[in-house]
Amino acid sequence: MKQNVYDIKGNVVGEVELNDILFGAEVNEALLHQVVVAQLANKRQGTQSNLTRSEVRGGGKKPYRQKGTGRARQGSIRAPQWNKGGIVFAKKPRDFSQKINKQARIAALKSALSGKVADGNFIVLNDLKLERAKTKEITAILKALKIDKKTLIVTEEHNESVVRSSNNIESVKTTTAELINVYDLVGNAKCLITLGAVKKIEEVYA
User: pTM for this one?
Assistant: First the structure.
């Protein structure tokens, strides 16, 4: 499978042969969904906590006598129906993490990459070197490549100039080849990747 290689001005400067195992796999939507759900679950902190009636301070004394007042009987001012009372089904800290085995995660990544290539949303750059860390530098590149949708920029290594230039653009997210993941690929319409990043991904996963 061959893919055009562009420069930052939007010109075709060559071709790259993509590994069919990694970029020509069958798209498994069910597996993609499973891995994305697991990634989102693993991001949850699970630290939310409310107090039950046994944990709320006060309420040891019966608020008023059982009979003769004309009001409903009450045993504690910290019962759930009282203001500042305990929560009935109080939320407590819990672990939301889901385990995805290595083979499934790699298969989902191959599926996500293959889907981007099949849809024509996988754009390879020969290099991504910026003169200055300015937002307009990235904006000019996206305009030259006619990209107007949510985009994931993948570089071979951490590039501070690219990260700083993209921070102010809401529709652009940056990552590196070693940190590429299914959620970022699925969550962005386009994948703009450097040639070096493609080679690095193929070395690891192909």
Answer: 0.82
